[in-house]
Please model this.
Amino acid sequence: MKNKILVTGGTGYIGSHIVVELQNSGFAVVIADNLCNSKKEIVIQIEKITGVKPDFELVDLKDSGATLQLFEKHKDLSGVIHFAAYKAVGESMEFPLIYYHNNLFSLINTLQAMLKHNINNFVFSSSCTVYGDPDSLPVDEKAVVKPPISPYGNTKQISEEIISDTINTSSLQSISLRYFNPVGAHSSGLIGELPLGVPNNLVPFITQTAIGKRDVLKVFGNDYPTPDGTCIRDYIHVEDLAKAHVAAVERMIGQKQKENCEIFNLGTGAGNSVLEVIKTFEKTSGVKLRYQFADRRPGDIPEVWADTSLANNVLGWKARKNLDDMMRSAWIWEQNLAKGKIF
Ligand code: NAD
Ligand code: WQD
Model:
């Protein structure tokens, strides 16, 4: 019998890649998503890649009754990976209550249903945003969690606390994965990021500018105290991220956790500047990108990259793909979307 994993937010950008990796690693998957930021067709795309159609449940996890019903229907789960959340930093500044409501209620309802059904393995999508502007680099998991810059970031901090408190009073065990900057698309070119409206994030803005959907990329600030003046981030390929989730699930199911609440950074361990990302995109795509320097974006920190030793040594996982792979796959995905090959 295959172990069955519930993936909340599984038709989303990161979730869909994890569903593919889980299925390719022999897990059965149920996706629960309300499609507020993804499309049902992603389930078909996943089937094209893996040959297996995951179960799909249209559920709004803000709704506690609907969440309980989902768990009533799927009583045989070995674990849950929780991606379902809103994720746009700027939007969260404008609509904080909508962010707190969605991200926290979805988490609480999922945890309550898990406790009710004695499902104890929980993997959570956290973020490097909890480190704010770190005191030293690379940043490791022991670094202090800084006061959040945005309500979105605060939902990740509060979520980690809710999980920790729940673990202290139940048999739940969790692994929180703090992603740095996930980018790129699946090597099949069949799934990738689908930003709604104007993208906030760098890589989808680059590919949309290159394809002609946007006029020009604004590089936010070229006067930072970095070698070329632009901000530095730890970009990580979404396929590498997917492998780390499978490693986390296998660790939990195999009862290998040393503590009931574990946290791992997921990055490559190296930083790249915005200009390096642009140059790498131009090199791998052969497209000259239209960009101009603009004012700093409020809330941006100059630089951050991960110390990944813990994930490397304890999870036995290491990012393998480089910035060329990230840009190449993101560009293939954008072109496939433009050619109408996906939807
Ligand atoms: P995404 O928006 O593509 O995926 C999230 C999915 O959750 C979507 O399919 C959406 O429809 C679903 N969803 C949202 N609210 C829901 C609800 N109430 N009920 C059911 N489904 C709901 O985002 P993503 O980039 O794949 O991010 C996944 C997770 O990873 C999020 O928790 C995000 O905060 C976290 N994260 C993302 C990044 C990033 O840069 N993309 C970085 C760090 C952490
Ligand atoms: C990367 C760099 C921008 C767009 C965000 C969230 C973080 C996490 C990952 C979820 C920065 C620059 C961007 C543009 C630009 N998400 N940029 N022009 O801000 O590092 O992290 O996603 O948890 O919480 O804050 O990612 O892709 O927005 O920006 O110059 O049009 O690109 O200034 O230096 P960020 P990003």
Remarks:
- The chain is about 40% helix and 15% strand.
- Residues 87, 89, 127, 129, 181, 200-202, 205, 217-220, 231, 233, 274, 297, 300 surround WQD (ligand 2) (CB under 6 Å).
- Residues 4-183+235-268+307-320 form a domain with the Rossmann fold fold (CATH 3.40.50.720).
